[in-house]
Design a protein that fits this description.
399 residues, alpha+beta, seven-stranded antiparallel sheet, five-stranded mixed sheet
Length: 399
């Protein structure tokens, strides 16, 4: 199995400058390749330029500009060209599916933050001795950079990426390792219902509070963004204000990740089977369609966009997608089963008699079956129905 590790780098002043130049030159390569594709399509009878053609030009590009392109790893530049090719592949795939995707865009120097090295030892080298207190990563054109390795890397390092986040630099490793031994069986199964009032509720009636990290940081973020808007573009004060906004967003993201990791770890340790709703988060957070006014051309009727904006912000703040991805990854490592089920009518179906009706849920928190009179918390009912659907699906799956 493949596992990723992310460590903080501690470059010297000169190495930090070199890392910034590496990102700048890879960004220039990315934008140049994108411009070539656009020109070929517009001015050469809609000719398609592919990755193989652009990769073959790298040798000449490096010889023509040895100061900016020739000093960096050849394989990392190929990875940058593959990155552009993946963007075009995804663009055409969504276009054929009838969607309205945005065309791949040029990247500004401040929006190109990652350089990939496809193979350890080719332009980069992870140098981690188990008993040495200092760990370093060697990068072509930069040198040996110190790394704060807060945990050991298990397995064989396959790829290395260098990432910039604000003023900090990180190295991201992917390592191939043997599948770990599964956790001891507990004999417990659980269903979880995701929500906004509570982050999740399980089939045992346990509620996990929604921390709402984004809402708690709203006041500080608004103040920082207002201070940023008042600064003159290109000034030193504006750069500091932008860093302040980025730091606040980074803090919110880390707190959200920390909560997701701890919640998922608790579920994986306590239960053998975990069933959850197969949520279509992108559809749930889609903006409402405009409603044209038939009586006034060019005018529109109220469509609830303001209320939907607040709901979308709450959904994003909860971080359901991140949590479910972490849950699946931890369950795979621990040998647990995670099952996604259809969420339709899970909070309207009575767990006692099976009657399904909209009237069974008179309020957001209350469930009262109009047929048999069963009363319970609506989220607990939803979790019970999710668990039953998950177990039924597990029994029908081939071994």
């Amino acid at each position: 199995m493949i596992r990723a590790y992310k460590f903080l780098m501690r470059p010297t002043v000169g190495q930090a400058i070199a890392l910034g130049e590496m990102l700048r030159d890879h960004c220039s390569l990315y934008n140049g390749a994108l411009q070539e594709r656009r020109d070929a399509w517009r001015h050469a009878s809609k000719t398609t330029v592919r990755y193989g053609m652009q990769s073959a030009q790298l040798k000449d590009i490096r010889a023509f500009d040895p100061e900016r392109q020739g000093r960096w790893s050849f394989s990392s530049q190929q990875a940058t060209l593959r990155r552009l090719d993946k963007a075009f592949t995804a663009f055409f795939r969504r276009l054929k599916a009838g969607e309205k995707p945005g065309h791949p865009r040029f990247r500004g120097a401040g929006r190109f933050d990652t350089v990939d090295f496809p193979k350890d030892g080719d332009g980069c080298r992870w140098d981690a001795t188990p008993h040495e207190p200092v760990t370093r990563v060697r990068l072509q054109g930069v040198g040996h950079v110190r790394v704060h390795r807060h945990r050991p890397v298990v397995g064989i390092v396959k790829t290395i990426s260098v990432k910039r986040e604000g003023k900090r630099w990180y190295v991201v490793l992917t390592a191939e390792q043997d599948r770990p031994d599964p956790l001891p069986a507990t004999g417990s199964v659980v269903g979880i219902d995701m929500g906004l009032a509570s982050f999740l509720t399980d089939s045992n009636g346990v509620h996990v509070a929604n921390p709402r990290h984004g809402r708690k940081a709203t006041a500080n973020l608004e103040a920082a963004q207002q201070a940023l808007a008042r600064c003159k573009r290109g000034s030193k004060r504006r750069r500091k204000a932008a860093e302040r906004v980025a730091d606040l967003h980074r803090t919110v993201r880390r707190r959200r990740l920390d909560h997701a990791h701890k919640t998922a770890l608790g579920l994986v340790r306590e239960h053998d089977v975990i069933a959850h709703e197969d949520l279509k988060i992108r559809n749930m957070s889609a903006a409402p369609a405009p409603k044209p006014n038939p009586e006034i051309p060019g005018a529109f009727l109220p469509n609830g966009a303001a209320a939907k904006t607040g709901l979308n912000r709450s959904i994003a703040d909860a971080g359901w997608g991140v949590f479910l991805a972490i849950l699946h990854a931890k369950a795979e490592s621990a040998g647990r089963d995670v099952i996604a089920v259809d969420p339709r009518n899970t909070s309207r179906r009575c767990p006692a008699c099976g009657h399904t009706a909209k009237e069974n849920r008179p309020t957001q928190e209350t469930f009262h079956c109009v047929l048999c009179g069963h009363t319970a918390h609506a989220d607990t009912v939803g979790a019970l129905n999710v668990l039953r659907a998950g177990l039924a699906r597990r029994e029908t799956q081939p071994a």
